[in-house]
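Researcher: We're teaching a course module on how sequence relates to structure. For the next exercise, students receive a sequence and then see the predicted structure as tokens, so they can try to spot secondary structure elements on their own. Here is the exercise chain.
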Amino acid sequence: MGFFDLFKKKQPDAAPASAPVESVEKGDCDVVLTSIGSNKIAVIKEVRDVTKMNLADVKDAVERTGVVASNLSKDSAERLVARLIANGAQAYVEDKSASFAPSESTKAEPVSAPELKVGDVCEGKVVYESEGLGTYVEVAGKEGLISATGFPVGMTVKVEVVAINGDSVDLKWVR
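Model: And here is the predicted structure for the students to work with:
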């Protein structure tokens, strides 16, 4: 070895092939963050674990809220949402493969009000969000309130009918 060989940059060793890496499957789902919550650092770590983006990009995405992880399988997206919620954030899975404007031939018949019963689990459309109260959801022509927030208007959410009160219903969000 010559004198100048001492100053040459040494190439870093390759990472060991046996390093455990969580498998994230690709798919048509995005994870949308609607609120960071009080544990911002933990939320950033969870998103970074899945996306493998650099820290600055993840921090910017989390602070902006909105889509923080794209093109995940439904299972991977749901796991990330569960981890974010466990850390105090509010998030949901947006399935890009689902059509939000079905053709006339594929539209399901709406459930009429008399068919709606206490205990039914059904889908409803988000109508609007009330500051500090929750999210108003329309189910079978009746409007009800769920305590969860951060859903965009028009999104379909799964709810359980707790009580029926004339033109309104008491609902519980089902994850």
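Model: If you want an answer key for the exercise: Confidence is low (pLDDT under 50) at residues 11-22, 99-114. The longest strand covers residues 26-35.
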